[in-house]
Amino acid sequence: MPPDSSTPKVEARSPSDATPEALSVANISTLIGRVAKQDRAAFAKLYKATAPKLLGVVLRILKERSWADDVIQEAYLKVWQRASLFDAGKASPITWLVSIARNKAIDELRKHPAGRTSTDDAMDERVARQPTTQDQMEDQQEVSKLNQCIDQLAKERQDMVRLAYLSGWSREELARQYQQPVNTMKTWLRRALQDIKGCLES
Amino acid sequence: MSEHDDLDMQIAEFVLGTLPADERRALNARRLLDPAVDARVQQWEERLAGMADDVAPVRPGPELFAEIERVLDQQTAQSTQPDDTASLVTLRRQVNLWRWSTALASAAALVLVAVLTLQPASAPESFVAVFQHDDQQPAFLLTVDLQNRQLNIRPVTAEPQPGKSYQLWIKSDELGPNPQSVGVLGDQMQLDKGALKQYDPALLREATFGISVEPPGGSPTGQPTGPAIHGYLYPAGDGPSHGI
Fold first, then answer.
1. 20 to 30 A from A104, CA-CA: which of A151, B28, B31, B64?
2. Per-residue confidence (pLDDT) for residue B96, from 0 to 100
3. Could you say which of A117, A147, A182 is where a domain stops?
4. Selection from B99, B95, B9 nearest residue B47 by Cα
């Protein structure tokens, strides 16, 4: 079907030289604002600046490249539709974008739990996050604070939280790994989240 | 643990990703209805976002964006078609999951089963049905307050169809084999809040709802004649509390 002639066309159809952190937060907010006005050029720029980040997050959850690609596609279509709902006062633009993609990835994973072959490799690439000197140098107070707060949890619970968030492990998968009843896992996860929240607010 | 805290923890687990699939779907639907819940989801997203900072970016293949653009071009072309046939085709593509006449006989009937979780006796008996165009985009949201038998229907992505009306139907074994009309949505896509008054809450709890596209003013036959969109029912309150 031929595209509507009134649609602004994008010059580069394949933004291949993606440099993820090339744009500032403010720039990304501005781009989302333009996307809300159906600006296709802004959409291409937004994609180029942020898709590698989103794909990294989604691929870590789904493991399968083509599955992750599908989710990224749906995520950006949703970004196009919902850009007008983005509120810079409520969410940082990157968090908003990552959340759309991550949400979709987890929805997919819960719908087709067998689609991901195993959770073993997730355990391998695990989680034992060593604070680096770069962390201290980074001008990202919130990140450091979150990691500090997670690091205050018992080691197992740190891993559970990260396996869930980063690799999409379900309560059941965690329960199997840690040989606990599912309800105990629920309790542990909620306590961990409660502790993280309390720590962040302190 | 108070109800407020329990909701907060449910939202936290939703964002973490460990909320069970049924509660997850219900919360996804509830977010769309309730800005306060949505705001709390966003707060948790902000709190936990830092974990993703260590994830290494992965460069997408060059064809992926081209594909996204292709779909957008297609959508743009479809939504700007003033032609009634074209918009009907779009609609049919979106809602061809089932039709009333064949629904119960087909495998698609599975999606008709209302997904209900019994609430703790003290919780407000409010349910939400999501009428989906496809996997992600709800077309309508219907909330039913069982206690007061009040309904509220809200279009989400559904749009008025020129020369067509949307009609809401209820189906329950107790009402016989055929769906009954609840009402025809007005120009503002609204329906009388009391339209379910005549039905017993126990019946409403088990019923399935459908929305069909009909000639202006509603179905001439008293039965759905156009393509129908199914609705799942989800509890809109907090999920079953297991206590902590």
1. A151
2. 31
3. A117
4. B9
